[in-house]
Write a structure and sequence with these properties.
Strand order of the largest sheet: 1-2
Helix content: 40-55%
Number of helices: 5
Order of helices and strands: HHHHHEE
Shape: elongated
Distance between the termini: 71 Å
Radius of gyration: 32 Å
Largest sheet: 2 strands, antiparallel
Number of strands: 2
């Protein structure tokens, strides 16, 4: 492997047994806290909120560092689904009379028609 990568054997073993730099060691301690905060908050917190939560816990780090660690951990906040209002009830509207009284059996075809229309597409928009 050393021959293929063109590095000395002593250099490889020196690298292998070298302790982690302080930055990597701090990242190793910070990453589980970021992941814990992310999971504890239903996976909807992004880097600004996680950064604020870490600051509240007394942990000092930059928001960009939180962003980088979240990208390394493949954590991204889920955006809430936007609800679309399709029906707007009119409290003054009158209901159509119930002519069938739940009797759906017909004597012949095309005698009883039943439908439930919530909205209809028109040239001017949805009604």
């Amino acid at each position: 492997m050393c021959r293929v990568l063109e590095v000395s054997v002593s250099g490889f073993y020196a690298w292998k047994h070298r302790p982690l730099c302080p930055r990597k060691r701090e990242d190793g301690e910070l990453a589980p806290r970021i992941e814990d905060t992310f999971v504890r908050n239903r996976r909807v917190y992004g880097s600004p909120r996680i950064h604020a939560d870490l600051r509240a816990q007394g942990i000092r780090c930059s928001r960009k560092r939180v962003v980088g660690l979240m990208q390394t951990l493949k954590l991204s906040a889920r955006r809430p689904k936007q609800r679309v209002v399709t029906t707007k009830s009119d409290p003054t509207a009158r209901f159509a009379p119930n002519l069938l009284q739940r009797n759906f059996v017909a004597d012949a075809p095309d005698k009883k028609w039943v439908a439930d229309v919530t909205f209809i597409a028109t040239g001017q928009g949805w009604l």
